[in-house]
Amino acid sequence: MNLFSRSSLLRRPEPRSEESASTTAAAGTAVLPDPGLAALTGEWMIDPAHSRIGFSVRHAMVTTVRGAFLEYRSRLHFDGRNPARSRAEISLATASVDTGVEQRDAHLIGRDFLDAAKHPRMIFTSSSVQIVGKDVYRMTGDLTIKDVTRTVVLDLTYIGHVTDPFGYERVGFDGTTTINRSDWGLTYNARLAEGGAMVSERLRLQFDIAAIRMPDAD
To answer: Closest Cα to residue 209, out of 32, 1, 3?
Structure first.
């Protein structure tokens, strides 16, 4: 079952020319949610034990450093009737960053980068969702780091929907976006002897998410 399913309208007039054919094809295709997805509408939260919110960045121009945030809060709303009304908010603890190297983690949470003592949380809040293909969606939202808020666009791929052996309903999806860290004031860097940067300005954020339905409030 597809969380944000779609269908196409196949009927359209015969085109009178190649130009009118492409125009008519674009206008004659509609994106509609699967009515069967209405049952998935509701509140969900990310299961940290089976999810990863991470990042990767080029280091010294020749390798890639990967890390993740281990502590976060989330609130997700899925709307199976109208996917455009779906929304998400994720708040990450900046001090929970983990790259597998203690010295590097200490530098990342220090004043040169995230400054976790002064800015303990990073927050993403969605503003819109679009269906862009089969099982592929685009979520636009605001990302706040160190009190700087900028718009980002996540490309999401829907994985599936199941009920696990313990009776929990789960949905899964992967998401990714690439940002320029200097746009959020993360400008610290060192130069290499060959002239390049020690740490790339481009940072890839990765969301490997398993979400669990929250119980209805009494």
So the answer is: 3
